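User: I've been trying to design a sequence by hand for this structure and keep getting stuck. Would you show me what you'd pick, starting by listing the structure so we're on the same page?

Assistant: Good idea, let's start from the same input. This is the structure you sent:
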């Protein structure tokens, strides 16, 4: 069982960058498909980026070219590199995991697919 903990959020000006991290202390993400979601004030949680166990990635259109999801060495950390931040990126960002078993190339963009969730990290972008 995973206990996901996000970190790296903060307050930045538009155009700035952040790197979000997600880890489950003492556990590896090997065998898990991972994802990042976000929830802006007054809005529903939405898909941002996903990565399969083998490293295949997908991003929602609004972040393509600006956000990069990656898996760290030893598969113990998930990252989301966020560049060229915009005020509309302001949200709580959540890490999620789903055990993929042998489906090493599958990634998931639907919130209900994921089995484990972190509590989120706040990203605030000022204009």
């Amino acid at each position: 069982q995973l206990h996901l903990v996000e970190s790296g959020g903060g307050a930045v000006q538009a155009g700035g960058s952040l790197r979000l991290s997600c880890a489950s202390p003492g556990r590896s993400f090997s065998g898990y498909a991972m994802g990042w979601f976000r929830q802006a004030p007054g809005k529903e949680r939405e898909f941002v980026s996903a990565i399969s166990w083998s490293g295949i990635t997908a991003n929602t259109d609004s972040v393509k070219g600006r956000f990069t999801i990656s898996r760290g060495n030893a598969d113990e950390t998930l990252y989301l590199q966020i560049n060229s931040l915009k005020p509309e990126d302001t949200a709580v960002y959540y890490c999620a995991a789903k055990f993929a078993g042998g489906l090493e190339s599958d990634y998931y963009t639907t919130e209900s697919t994921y089995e484990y969730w972190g509590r989120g990290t706040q990203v605030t972008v000022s204009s």
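That's my pick for every position. To get oriented when you compare it with your attempt: The longest strand covers residues 91-99. The CA atoms of residues 22 and 111 lie 17 Å apart.
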